[in-house]
Design brief:
The complex is a heterotrimer. Helices cover 45% and strands 12% of the residues of chain A. By secondary structure, chain A is an alpha/beta fold. Chain A has a four-stranded parallel sheet with strand order 3-2-1-4, sandwiched between helices. A four-stranded mixed sheet of chain A has the order 8-7-10-9, sandwiched between helices. In chain A, a hairpin with a 2-residue loop joins strand 5 and strand 6. The termini of chain A are far apart. By secondary structure, chain B is an alpha/beta fold. Chain B has five domains: 75 residues, Ubiquitin-like (UB roll); 149 residues, 2-Layer Sandwich (Alpha-Beta Plaits), CATH 3.30.70.20; 248 residues, Rossmann fold (3-Layer(aba) Sandwich); 191 residues, Dimethylsulfoxide Reductase, domain 2 (3-Layer(aba) Sandwich), CATH 3.40.228; 112 residues, Barwin-like endoglucanases (Beta Barrel), CATH 2.40.40. In chain B, the strands form ten sheets. Chain B has a seven-stranded mixed sheet with strand order 14-13-27-26-25-15-16. Chain B has a six-stranded mixed barrel with strand order 32-36-33-35-34-37. In chain B, strands 2-1-5-3-4 form a five-stranded mixed sheet, with helices on one face. Chain B is globular and about 85 Å long. The termini of chain B are far apart. In chain C, 52% of the residues lie in helices and 11% in strands. Chain C has a four-stranded mixed sheet with strand order 2-1-3-4, covered by helices on one side. In chain C, strand 3 and strand 4 form a beta hairpin. The chains are: A alpha/beta, B alpha/beta, C alpha+beta.
Chain lengths: 419, 904, 164
C-alpha cells in the first residue's frame, strides 16, 4: 500500500494564502476549463466521474448539483461544510490549511455549476488558525478577481463568506448547519424538503464537504478518464483517511480507494498498535460507526466492503482500539462525547442519549444488571429506527455493536459486583 | 385537486394529492399516535411516534410529513412499530413528571392516552429527578401556568406562537439537559410579545401548560362542554365553555381544531375574559329607582311599572316620543323581538343600535354601490387572496382571529399585504407596503390610487363594461387627483401611493379589509363608496378571495342589522317606507305600523334635548360611555323622562335609568348570532342565569303583553322560524340547519346551501354603481389652541366599554387602564415622559390619562382607546355626523395635550 | 450609551447587517463585552428586526455564549474523548464542586469563568487545562484544583495589598 497524492499533492509545497504558489502548480486550470465548458457540462463531468460525498452520507455529488441547478430562478446557495466534528476525523483540516486554494476552486466551480452567487464556508470554531487563514484567503481572492463580480473576466459572480462555527458536533449535520446560518438554534429539521429544494432561507442549497469539493478541480483538471482509473468499480478516486487511537502513528493519509485492507492500512501507516497488543476493535468511519474486529478487519478500504463487513465508511476516520481495554470503557468514552451533542429537537435522541449515558455509567461503575443491557439495546434500536438525522440514527451504533461483539466485557462489568 | 388512491392497513383509501399519511389515516378513523402534530402548524416530526411502514421503503417513515402517493401501501402498526412506540413513550415518560393524580389534564391528555394505549411503564428508564422549583416566564402570569417538569419539549407551543400567532414570544432556550420553553430572558409573559391568545395552553399535549385560573377546579373529563359562539367581536369564534356541573360555573374555555371560522384559535378575550359571566356584579333582580335610589322589585312590579309608564307617555306625547336601542350584543331572536316590540307594540320606527356608531356608513355605502351592505366574502377566503389591502382596521387587535388569516395569507401563501393606517399597527410588520395617511384623508388616498390605476391603464375594462354603471362619472373627478395632490393632503409620499395602487391593481384577487378607521367619519359613507369604486375598477368583486370586507365590531352587530334593529328597515333590509312591505309586516304582525322612518342613535339623544323623545328603552347598550361627546349624551340620559336599562350589569347608562331589568348573558341563553361573514351561528345555554335574570326576548314579550300586544314564543327556535317567514335573506334558516357549522345568508329557502361570497355574476342591485366622491376635510381640524389630531380606537385586551373585559384578572394584568399615544418628538417638546399623567382637551371636554410615548404614531397625531371609564376618550370625541349614515366622527377631532402640574 | 450603540452599529455594519451573520455578530458583541449584555441583545433585535426570543434562543443554545459577565480569569478544561478517558470528567466535577460553578458559568465571586470544551487538539498530553491562555498538560484533579486555588490566592493577595 502506498499513498497517492491526488488531492494533497500541493500540501506543504507553498505557503497559503500565496496564490502564485498554487497557480504555479496547475491551480485554476480547472476553473478556467469549467467557465469555458458551461454549467451543464461541468455537472455532466462530475456525474461521469462518479464522485460521491466525503462527509459521511456518501450521496452522489453530480445529481445533487443537478437538482439545485434545475431551479432557474432566484437566489441559490452553496455551503462548504468544514465543521468536521466527527470523532477521529481531521482530514479536512489538512486541505483547509495545506491547499485552501484547491478547496476555494472547488467552491467556485460548484457555485458556477449550480448557479449560486452566494457561498459560505462553515469552519469548525476550534480551528482558530484555519479561520484566520481563510479570512486572509478571501481578501487575496477578491484582490485576484477570484471572488466578486466578473470572475476571471467571465460573467460569473460569486461571493464567499467565512463563518466560524460554534464548534458543536451537530452543526456538521447539514440541516442543523443551515439552521445555524439562519440565525437559529442549530437544530436539525425534517426532510423532505431536502436542502436542494428548500435549504438556506428556504432556497435551493448545495451542502458539500471540503474533501468532496477538493475533488472537483482535480476531476476537471485531470479529466474524468484519468480520475476513474483510480479506485474500484463504483467508487472511483482516492480518499483521505484519518488514522487515530491506539496506533503508533496517527495522521491523515490519501489512499486510492480499495488499494488495501483495513488491517494493512493500520499496520503500514499506523505502525501497528501503540502498546504492541493485538487490535481489539476498529471504527472505520468515525466515532459513530460500528466496531469491526477479527476477520472483518481484512475488508478492503471501500465503502461497499466496509458495509459488507458490518460497519460504514462514514467520514473515513479510522479509530483503533487495542486489546486490554474493556468495550464498556471504550463505549463510555464515546457516549460521553455524544451525550452532550444532541440538538435536543427530537425526543428519542434527546432523551435516549442521556439514558444510554446513565446506564453505561452505571454498568461501568459496576452496578449494572442484565436488565440494563437489555435497556441499552432497546433504547439504541429505537433511536436508530426512528431518529430524524444522522446523529440520532448513529450515536447508538457503537453501543449496539459493542454489545454484539464483546458481550463478555459487559457481562464482566456486571458480574464484578454480583460476584 | 388530483385524488390519489392508496392502501392503509388493508383498506383502500383516496385522498387529495399532498395529504399526509397521518391526515389520510385520520380520515378513515385510524389515529396514528403523535405528540407533536397539529394541523395548524408545519409538521416538525420531533416525537417520532407517528412512524409507519411503507411497502418497498427501507426502515420506518414518519407519517406526519409524508404525503400519500398513488398505490402506496401503508402499515400503521405492527409488533415492531408498537414496541418502538412504547420505548419512545417510556423515554418521554422518563423525562416527564407523571402527576396524573392531580393534573387538570387527566383524561384529556394525549401523553396519558398513548401511555395507556401502549401500556408504557413510566418508570422503565427511571423516574425524572425532581428539580427545585424555579420561577419561570409564566410564574407571575394570571392566565397561564408552565410546569417545566411536565414539559415534553414537543415544541407545539413554540411553533404555534411562531407560526400561527406570529407573536414569537415563546422559544426554546438552553441545550440538552437544560432545554426549556421560555420567553426571551425568561421575562414575564405579559411583558413579552405574547398576546395571551392561550394557543400554547390549548395545543400542549402533556399538561405542561395550563389555565392558571382553572387549576384544581375540575378535570377536563369531569366538566360539561357546551359549544357556543363567542360574545366579543364579530368574528364568531366557536368556543367550548367547560362548566362544572356541580357549581354551574365556567371553569375554562377551549375551542376545537377544525371548527368554523376559527379552527380552534382564540384571542385573549375569548380564552381568558369570561369572568364577567360569573361576576358577583351581575344584576340579579329588577330595580326601580325611587327617590333617586334603586330599590329591588319583583318582576311583576317592574313589568307593570314599565308597561304603565310607556303607555302613559305614548298616550300623552304619541308613539314617536318613545325610542328604543336594541343591542348588537344580544341574539338575533332578542333583536327581532325588540324591533317588533317597538314597531308593532309601541308603534314607531324609532329603533336603532350601536351599528350606527360603527358601520352605518358601510350599510349605506355598500348598499348604494353593490346593493348589499355586508362583508362580500368569507373569512377563510382571506388567506388565499393575492393582495390584502387593510385600511382603517387594526385587525390583529380588534379582530385577532381574522388577523391570523391575514398573517397566514402573507407568510404561507405569499399574499402581498398593503396596510394604510395612521398608526404603525402590528400588521405593518408583515406588509409589503405600509403607508400612514393622516386621519380623515382616506378619500384622497383612494382617489389618487384610482388616478394611478386609470392613468397606467391597469384597470379591468371588461368588468367595468359588463358589470358596472356610471364609470364615466368617476373619471372627471379622478383626473386631477394625482398622487402629488394626495400627498399634500394625506402626507403619504406620492411614490408610495403609486406603489400601493400597483400592488392592489395587479393582484389576481385583491381583498379590501376595513373597519372603523373608514366608517367613523363625517365622510364615512364617502370612504366606503371610494373603496367600492376601487374594487369595481379592478374587477375585485363577485369572486372568491377578492371583494370589500367590512369587519363588524360586535358579536352580533351583523344580526342586529339583519333583523331590523334600524330605524329605516324591517328585518332583511326591507324599507319601512315601502308601502307593500309595510302591508306585508302589518299582516304578519297583525298590527298597523308606521311608514315613517325613525331616529338614529345620536339623533335620539339630540331629540331628547328638544323634548321630542320622552322615553328611551335601552337593551344591552351603554351609550353613557360609547357615544361621542359624552357630556352631551349624559345630559340627555339624565333629561329623558323615562329610561329603561335592560342589561347584565349596572352600567354607566343604567345609573341614569328609572328601571333596570336584569337580563342573561350569552352563556345563559339559546339563540343565534350572525358573524361578520354573514354566518348565522348557534348560541347555547351553558350555565344557569344569576338570580332572577331573564332572557331579553322573554322580558320584552312580557312588557309587550302587559301593554296589550301579546307576544309569546316557546323558545328561541320558534322566533327563528318566524324570522324565516318574513326575512327573505334568512328564509332557509332554522336551528336544525345551522346546528353544526352555521349558514351564511343570503339563504332564501330550506334547500339553499348559503352564500360564501356575494355578487357572483350579478350585483344584488343589478349593476355595480360607481359614485364619484369629492374629498372633504374632517369636521374639525387642528388649530392653534388644539394643535393635535386625536383619533380613537380599540386595543386587543379590551372590548367596547370594558364592562365585560375588565372583570378578567388576566386582562387587568396587561391592560390596567387607559392611555394616550403620542409621538416621541411631540412628547419631548412638551416634556412628557412615558407613563406620565397628562390631560387631553378638546372643545367638548377634558380627561386625565397616562402618556404612552411611541414611534408608532406620526408626529402631530394622538391616539386613545375608548374602553376606559376613567379618562373616557368619548368625553373628547366629536358628535358631528355623516349626513347620509348619521355616524359620528369618532376618528378625528382637534385636541391639545398638556403635562399635568406636578402634585406638590 | 451613545458610544455603546456605536459599538453595536459597527458590529452590525461589519457584516452589512446580513441575516446569516447573527452568530458572528453575537460573537463579536461577546468579544467586546465579555458576555452578551441583555440591553445589547435588545438593541440588536430591534436593529435586525428580529424577535428578541430568537436571539435569546440562539444565545442559550451555543454553550460558548454567556449571558452573564465573565470572571477575572478563564479556565478551560478539555473533556474531549481522549482527555475524558484520562480522567477530565472527574476533574471537571471536582472544579464545579469546589468552586460552585457550572461549565459555561462564572464563579459566584467572579474569580473565573469555567469552560468545558471538546478537544483542544492536544490529545497527546491529555488531560489538558488552559488557564488564561497557559496550557497545563496531564493535569490531575489535585493539580487542577491547586492551579485554580493559586488564582484565588493571587487575587486575594492583590486585594490585600490594595487595602494596605
Amino acid at each position: 500500500m502506498k499513498e497517492i497524492k491526488l488531492l494533497t499533492r500541493r500540501v506543504g509545497t507553498y505557503e497559503p494564502p500565496d496564490l502564485k504558489g498554487y497557480e504555479a502548480q496547475g491551480g485554476l486550470v480547472a476553473l478556467k476549463k469549467a467557465l469555458a465548458m458551461g454549467p451543464e457540462s461541468v455537472i455532466d463531468e462530475i456525474k461521469r466521474a462518479g464522485l460521491v460525498g466525503r462527509g459521511g452520507a456518501g450521496f452522489p455529488t453530480g445529481p445533487k448539483w443537478a437538482m439545485v441547478a434545475g431551479e432557474k430562478q432566484g437566489q441559490k446557495y452553496l455551503i462548504c461544510n468544514a465543521e468536521e466534528g466527527e470523532v477521529g476525523t481531521f482530514k479536512d483540516k489538512v486541505l483547509l490549511d495545506g491547499d485552501p486554494w484547491l478547496v476555494l476552486e472547488g467552491i467556485l466551480i460548484g457555485a458556477f455549476a449550480v448557479g449560486a452567487e452566494k457561498t459560505y464556508i462553515y469552519i469548525n470554531g476550534e480551528y482558530d488558525q484555519t479561520i484566520e487563514l481563510w479570512d486572509r484567503l478571501v481578501v487575496e481572492a477578491r484582490k485576484a478577481g477570484l471572488l466578486g463580480d466578473d470572475i476571471l473576466g467571465s460573467k460569473l459572480s460569486v461571493d464567499l463568506q467565512v463563518v466560524k462555527s460554534k464548534g458543536l458536533y451537530i452543526t456538521g449535520e447539514e440541516l442543523a448547519l443551515i439552521s445555524s446560518l439562519e440565525m437559529r438554534r442549530a437544530a436539525s429539521r425534517l426532510k423532505p424538503p431536502y436542502p436542494t429544494e428548500k435549504g438556506l432561507f428556504g432556497r435551493p442549497t448545495v451542502v458539500n464537504n471540503v474533501e468532496t469539493l477538493a475533488n472537483v478541480p482535480v476531476i476537471l483538471a485531470e479529466g474524468v478518464e484519468a480520475y476513474r482509473r483510480l479506485g474500484v468499480e463504483g467508487e472511483p478516486g482516492t480518499r483521505l483517511f484519518s488514522l487515530s487511537g491506539d496506533v503508533k502513528k496517527s495522521g491523515v493519509y490519501e489512499l486510492e480507494i480499495g488499494s488495501g485492507t483495513l488491517a494493512e492500512f493500520i499496520e503500514e501507516f499506523g505502525g501497528g498498535t501503540a502498546g504492541g497488543r493485538p487490535i481489539k476493535a476498529v471504527q472505520p468511519g468515525g466515532g459513530t460507526s460500528r466496531f469491526l474486529a477479527g476477520d472483518s478487519l481484512k475488508c478492503k478500504l471501500t465503502a461497499r466492503a466496509i458495509l459488507q463487513a458490518g460497519s460504514g465508511i462514514g467520514t473515513a476516520g479510522v479509530i483503533v482500539y487495542e486489546e486490554g481495554k474493556s468495550a464498556v470503557d471504550i463505549v463510555k468514552g464515546l457516549i460521553e462525547f455524544y451525550g452532550f451533542e444532541s440538538c435536543g429537537r427530537c425526543a428519542p435522541c434527546r432523551i435516549g442519549v442521556v439514558r444510554i449515558k446513565e446506564i453505561i455509567d452505571k454498568v461501568f461503575g459496576g452496578e449494572g444488571t442484565d436488565e440494563d443491557l437489555e435497556q441499552l439495546r432497546q433504547i439504541g434500536k429505537a433511536c436508530v429506527a426512528v431518529s430524524t438525522c444522522g446523529m440520532g440514527q448513529a450515536f447508538p451504533l457503537p453501543v449496539l455493536s459493542a454489545l454484539e461483539l464483546f458481550p463478555q466485557d459487559f457481562e464482566a462489568a456486571i458480574e464484578k459486583v454480583s460476584a | 385537486m388530483k385524488e390519489v388512491c392508496f392502501n392503509i392497513d388493508g383498506t383502500k383509501v383516496t385522498a387529495p394529492e399532498g395529504t399526509t399519511i397521518l391526515e389520510a389515516a385520520k380520515g378513515v378513523g385510524i389515529d396514528i399516535p403523535n405528540l407533536c402534530y397539529d394541523s395548524r402548524v408545519e409538521p416538525a416530526g420531533t416525537c417520532r411516534m407517528c412512524v409507519v411502514q411503507i411497502e418497498g421503503r427501507p426502515g420506518l417513515t414518519i407519517s406526519c410529513n409524508t404525503p400519500v402517493a398513488e398505490g402506496m401501501e401503508v402499515c400503521t402498526e405492527n409488533a415492531e412499530i408498537a414496541a418502538i412506540r412504547r420505548t419512545v413513550l417510556e423515554l418521554i415518560l422518563s423525562d416527564h413528571r407523571v402527576a396524573c393524580t392531580s393534573c387538570d389534564k387527566d383524561g384529556a391528555c394525549r401523553l396519558q392516552d398513548y401511555a395507556y394505549r401502549y401500556q408504557a411503564d413510566e418508570g422503565r428508564f427511571g423516574l425524572p429527578e425532581r428539580r427545585p422549583v424555579k420561577p419561570n416566564y409564566a410564574t407571575n402570569s394570571e392566565g397561564i401556568l408552565y410546569d417545566p417538569d411536565k414539559c415534553i419539549l414537543c415544541g407545539l407551543c413554540v411553533r404555534y406562537c411562531e407560526e400561527v400567532q406570529k407573536a414569537e414570544a415563546l422559544t426554546f432556550a438552553g441545550r440538552l439537559g437544560q432545554i426549556e420553553v421560555s420567553t426571551a430572558f425568561g421575562m414575564d409573559l405579559h411583558e413579552s410579545t405574547c398576546v395571551l391568545c392561550g394557543g400554547c395552553v390549548e395545543i400542549c399535549p402533556a399538561g405542561s401548560m395550563l389555565d392558571r385560573a382553572a387549576i384544581g377546579k375540575g378535570r377536563e373529563k369531569d366538566l360539561t362542554r357546551t359549544r357556543t359562539t363567542c360574545a366579543y367581536c364579530g368574528v364568531g369564534c366557536q368556543l367550548d365553555l367547560l362548566t362544572d356541573p356541580k357549581t354551574g360555573r365556567i371553569v375554562k374555555v377551549t375551542s376545537e381544531v377544525g371548527c368554523i371560522p376559527n379552527n380552534g384559535n382564540m384571542c385573549v378575550k375569548g380564552k381568558f375574559a369570561m369572568d364577567f359571566v360569573g361576576s358577583d356584579k351581575r344584576l340579579t333582580t329588577p330595580l326601580i329607582k325611587r327617590n333617586g335610589k334603586f330599590e329591588e322589585a319583583t318582576w311583576e312590579e317592574a313589568i307593570e311599572f314599565v308597561a304603565e309608564r310607556l303607555k302613559q307617555i305614548r298616550s300623552e306625547f304619541g308613539a314617536e316620543s318613545i325610542a328604543g336601542l336594541s343591542s348588537a350584543k344580544c341574539t338575533n331572536e332578542d333583536n327581532y323581538v325588540f324591533q317588533k316590540f317597538i314597531r308593532a307594540c309601541i308603534g314607531t320606527n324609532n329603533v336603532d343600535h350601536c351599528a350606527r356608531l360603527c358601520h352605518a356608513s358601510t350599510v349605506a355605502g355598500l348598499a348604494r354601490a353593490f346593493g348589499s351592505g355586508a362583508m362580500t366574502n368569507s373569512i377563510d377566503e382571506i388567506k388565499d387572496a393575492g393582495c390584502i389591502f387593510i385600511i382603517g382596521s387594526n385587525t390583529t387587535e380588534a379582530h385577532p382571529v381574522i388577523g391570523l388569516y391575514v398573517k397566514e395569507g402573507v407568510m404561507k401563501n405569499g399574499a402581498e399585504l398593503l396596510v394604510a393606517d395612521p398608526r404603525r399597527i402590528d400588521l405593518a410588520r408583515f406588509a409589503k407596503l405600509y403607508i400612514a395617511q393622516k386621519p380623515g384623508t382616506d378619500v384622497a388616498l383612494i382617489n389618487a390610487m384610482m388616478n394611478v390605476i386609470i392613468s397606467e391603464e391597469i384597470y379591468d375594462k371588461d368588468f367595468i363594461s359588463e358589470r358596472t354603471e356610471d364609470f364615466e362619472k368617476l373619471k372627471p373627478i379622478l383626473k386631477d387627483f394625482t398622487p402629488e395632490k394626495a400627498e399634500a393632503i394625506t402626507t403619504i409620499p406620492a411614490e408610495k401611493i403609486r406603489a400601493a395602487a400597483r400592488i392592489y391593481a395587479k393582484a389576481d384577487t385583491a381583498s379590501i379589509i376595513y373597519s372603523m378607521g373608514i366608517t367613523q367619519h363625517t365622510t364615512g359613507t364617502d370612504n366606503v363608496l371610494s373603496l367600492a369604486n376601487l374594487a369595481m375598477l379592478t374587477g375585485n368583486v363577485g369572486k372568491a378571495s377578492a371583494g370589500v370586507n367590512p369587519l363588524r365590531g360586535q358579536n352580533n352587530v351583523q344580526g342586529a342589522c339583519d333583523l331590523g334593529a334600524l330605524p329605516n328597515v324591517y328585518p332583511g333590509y326591507q324599507s319601512v317606507e315601502d308601502s307593500q312591505l309595510q302591508t306585508k309586516f302589518e299582516s304578519a304582525w297583525e298590527q298597523k305600523l308606521s311608514g315613517r322612518k325613525g331616529l338614529t342613535v345620536v339623533e335620539m339623544m339630540h331629540a331628547i334635548e328638544e323634548d321630542k323623545i320622552k322615553a328611551l328603552y335601552i337593551m344591552g347598550e351603554n351609550p353613557a360611555l360609547s357615544d361621542p361627546n359624552l357630556n352631551r349624551t349624559r345630559k340627555s340620559l339624565e333629561k329623558v323622562d323615562f329610561l329603561v336599562s335592560q342589561d347584565i350589569f349596572l352600567s354607566e347608562t343604567a345609573e341614569y335609568a328609572d328601571v333596570v331589568l336584569p337580563s342573561v348573558c350569552f352563556a345563559e341563553k339559546d339563540g343565534t348570532f350572525t358573524n361578520t361573514e354573514r354566518r348565522v351561528q348557534r348560541v347555547r345555554k351553558a350555565v344557569t342565569p344569576p338570580g332572577q335574570a331573564q332572557s331579553d326576548w322573554e322580558i320584552i314579550c312580557e312588557v309587550a303583553t302587559k301593554m296589550g300586544y301579546p307576544m309569546a314564543y316557546g323558545g328561541a327556535d320558534e322566533i327563528m322560524d318566524e324570522i324565516a317567514t318574513v326575512t327573505p335573506i334568512y328564509g332557509g334558516m332554522s336551528f336544525e340547519r345551522i346546528d353544526k357549522v352555521g349558514l351564511q345568508w343570503p339563504c332564501p329557502d330550506k334547500e339553499h346551501p348559503g352564500t360564501r361570497f356575494l355578487h357572483e355574476g350579478t350585483f344584488k342591485r343589478g349593476k355595480g354603481k360607481f359614485h364619484p366622491v369629492e374629498y372633504k376635510n374632517p369636521d374639525e381640524l387642528p388649530d392653534e389652541n388644539y394643535p393635535f389630531v386625536l383619533t380613537t380606537g380599540r386595543q386587543l385586551y379590551q372590548f367596547h366599554t370594558g364592562t365585560m373585559t375588565r372583570k378578567s384578572p388576566v386582562i387587568n394584568q396587561v391592560s390596567p387602564t387607559g392611555y394616550v399615544e403620542i409621538h416621541t418628538d411631540d412628547a419631548a417638546g412638551l416634556e412628557i415622559s412615558n407613563g406620565e399623567k397628562v390631560e387631553v382637551i378638546t372643545r367638548r371636554g377634558k380627561v386625565t390619562t397616562l402618556a404612552r410615548v411611541t414611534g408608532n404614531i406620526e408626529k402631530g397625531w394622538l391616539f386613545m382607546p375608548f374602553h376606559f371609564r376613567e379618562g373616557p376618550a368619548n368625553m373628547l370625541t366629536n358628535d358631528a355626523l355623516d349626513p347620509t349614515a348619521k355616524i359620528p366622527e369618532f376618528k378625528v377631532c382637534a385636541a391639545a395635550v398638556n403635562k399635568m402640574k406636578q402634585p406638590v | 450609551m451613545a458610544q455603546e450603540n456605536n459599538i453595536l452599529e459597527q458590529i452590525v455594519d461589519r457584516y452589512d447587517g446580513e441575516v446569516g451573520m447573527l452568530i458572528p455578530m453575537m460573537q463579536d458583541i461577546q468579544a467586546e463585552y465579555g458576555y452578551l449584555p441583555p440591553d445589547q441583545l435588545h438593541a440588536m433585535a430591534k436593529r435586525l428586526e428580529l424577535p428578541l426570543s430568537r436571539l435569546y434562543a440562539v444565545a442559550t443554545f451555543y454553550s460558548s455564549f454567556r449571558l452573564a459577565p465573565k470572571g477575572a480569569h478563564d479556565v478551560t478544561l478539555c473533556v474531549g474523548t481522549v482527555c475524558y478517558l484520562k480522567g477530565s470528567g472527574a476533574i471537571s466535577e471536582a472544579i464545579c464542586r469546589e468552586f460552585r460553578v457550572e461549565p459555561g458559568g462564572t464563579t459566584p465571586d467572579r474569580l473565573f469563568t469555567f469552560q468545558a470544551v471538546n478537544c483542544l487538539g492536544a490529545c497527546a498530553v491529555a488531560p489538558v487545562m488552559i488557564v488564561d491562555g497557559k496550557y497545563y498538560d496531564g493535569v490531575t484533579t489535585a493539580s487542577a484544583l491547586e492551579v485554580i486555588s493559586g488564582l484565588a490566592k493571587d487575587e486575594a493577595t492583590v486585594q490585600n495589598e490594595g487595602e494596605r
